[in-house]
Amino acid sequence: MFDYLIVGAGFAGAVLAERLAKKSNKKVLIIDKRKHIGGNAYDYYNESGILIHKYGPHIFHTNSPKVFAYLSEFTLWRPYEHKVLASVRNKLLPIPINLNTVNGLYGHNFDSAQLAAYFDQIKEPIETIRTSEDVVLSQVGRDLYETFFRGYTRKQWGMDPSELDKMVTSRIPTRIDCDDRYFTDTFQYMPLHGYTRMFENMLDHPNIHIALNTSYTEIKKYVGFKNLIFTGPVDEYFDYCYGHLPYRSLQFVHKTVDQAQFQSVAVVNYPNDQDYTRITEYKHLTGQEHAKTSITYEYPSWNGDPYYPVPKPENAALYQQYKLLTETLPNVHFVGRLGTYRYYNMDQVVAQALTLYDKLSGKKSVNEVLDPQTVKRHVPSPGVYSPNAIPAAPES
Ligand SMILES: Cc1cc2nc3c(=O)[nH]c(=O)nc-3n(C[C@H](O)[C@H](O)[C@H](O)COP(=O)(O)OP(=O)(O)OC[C@H]3O[C@@H](n4cnc5c(N)ncnc54)[C@H](O)[C@@H]3O)c2cc1C
């Protein structure tokens, strides 16, 4: 008999398995219907020996000292600040929109003050910001909205920004300086040896048993457990009794090309002319040196694995119905992106799982302050790490 059955070996499941096994001495069985651990953050060495992310680029960034300190128990880090360019009107321009984006697009020579005044001129007055379109129009006006946002959002979400909740485009800032970092979080690092290695370290404990290629419906008949942690889709758990919660999916097309570099930054967005939304080149993220390079094209679709909960009021209302059902099951806990039907970044899922662990173990959640030595200990000085020293382990 296991103390806990944990469904899903992504961030939510792995954090809880690790804490319950190590800190509370619980016997844990963690399962995943996929053939690997790591959930959507899974990475692997492809047939050319290049480290790639199976489910698209995962860039770690957080403002939480607690989350960073926790994950630092299982990995060293590589400093990495994410940069994105957008391919528009035959130019590659920084996104989020900044001073260089506007100067580059229109051939202006604005300084920051002039750009602020320009935005004031072109932005559209919108009294109540409700949709993703409202957010952008009210900040940068129609031309920049149509050039950088409208087509991208239509492809990504399969609907117009005017139909989507404001949270989607609110995540992306507009800048009047030349800061071209995609994120501004305090901690911006990639796991030095990749995400999968980090997950292996988390799950390496005698109290943790792992079963891959195993779905919950299959195993629940055969395995005894006292408590259940479910990180799969909450509507699936309840047999879709109120209907399906909608998700947007992606098809990933991975390629390796016979050249050392494909593009100048990790991600290039294609807002307008192609069917794909973006191309990622992994060596920028991992720092790996290799004569070839691997890239991924992303094609949004309604078919495939559930990736993005669709942020619309009717979906939030449907989720609330399921949430009420979850509250009737005292020994079943729903956590993670699918379990709580919410777009969360990795660090938010780690924080959510740590909070659930505190609740399960009767501890009060505290926001620990990060000892500066933790950063020093876990970020090797440049040159210490040679990614190519890791043997290539092609995916089976
Ligand atoms: C394309 C893409 C890019 C992203 N980029 C970033 C990024 O750059 N930075 C960032 O912070 N976050 C990013 N994210 C978000 C990140 O992937 C999530 O925050 C994180 O993976 C969520 O972890 P999780 O454990 O909740 O879910 P998941 O990683 O989805 O893990 C859930 C696991 O449960 C398993 N499962 C589901 N149902 C069952 C069942 N019935 N039986 C058995 N197993 C089951 C699934 O197979 C899956 O492995 C991105 C997401 C996507 C899709």
TrEMBL record:
GO MF annotation, one: UDP-galactopyranose mutase activity
Instruction: Identify which top EC class this enzyme belongs to.
Output: isomerase
The UniProt keywords, alphabetically, are: FAD, Flavoprotein, Isomerase
- Give the UDP-galactopyranose mutase C-terminal domain ranges: 148-343
Cofactor or coenzyme needed: FAD
Q: Does the keyword Nucleotide-binding apply?
A: no
Q: Is DNA damage one of the keywords?
A: no
One family from Pfam that matches here is GLF
Task: Name it.
Answer: UDP-galactopyranose mutase
Q: Which organism is it from?
A: Xanthocytophaga flava
